[in-house]
Amino acid sequence: MTNIKNDLYNTLNTLVSHHTVIGIGSGSTIEGYIPYLAKYISENELAVKLVPTSMKTERKLKEAGLKSTDEIDRIDVTIDGANQFTDDFIAIKGGGGSLLREKIVGYFSESIVIVASDNKHIEELHHITLPVEINAYMHRVITDMIEQTLGISTVLRKKEGEIFITDNGNYVLDCFLPDISDPSLFERKLMAIPGVLETGLFTKHINQIISFNDDEIKTLYKERL
Ligand SMILES: O=C[C@H](O)[C@H](O)[C@H](O)COP(=O)(O)O
């Protein structure tokens, strides 16, 4: 392991212990983290429960020899990636289309720890693309309603020319946002539209951000009030 990978591995000391129930996020960063998690669990002979936030993550856990479950009554910590994050512990997620399950797992967690390369850090929520999971049924009407209500433009996500379908059988609308001055209010307005199932805007529960580049790793902790 290079030093930086070693440092990332060492962060597991503070996150995972015996009987921890861990939400495991989606995306390439977390997929890269899973082998270290597997090594850490096996070296320390830990009995943990792992709750994946996507079918792909479930496959990756299986490949690393780890079992998944969603039959749990609590989640202690969720370790997840992000497309963007701010110093205010807000993250934009869903670039890979796993936002609904990530939101469910994250919001039932005691805390969310974001692991992301430091080039995903943004100062303000300006000019961002926010993924929103919407119902496939009447998606055109839902899209029009989103655009009119919020005065924004959107694009229905496609993959290889076909409409992208989430693990839950829904569509993803990528919303272009010039500026969000009040993220919680913005999210409430979006979620009030019937057919909007979830947004990739994470404004709560994140209380640690581990950001890294090739040379260093930085951890930002949210103060508990
Ligand atoms: O839907 C995907 C998730 O929100 C990912 O956590 C996010 O897109 C970051 O992925 P990556 O680590 O591949 O940049």
TrEMBL record:
One of its GO terms (biological process) is D-ribose metabolic process. One of its GO terms (cellular component) is cytosol. GO terms for molecular function: ribose-5-phosphate isomerase activity. Keywords: Isomerase. Its EC number is 5.3.1.6. PANTHER family: RIBOSE-5-PHOSPHATE ISOMERASE. This is Ribose 5-phosphate isomerase A. It comes from Salinicoccus hispanicus. The gene is rpiA.
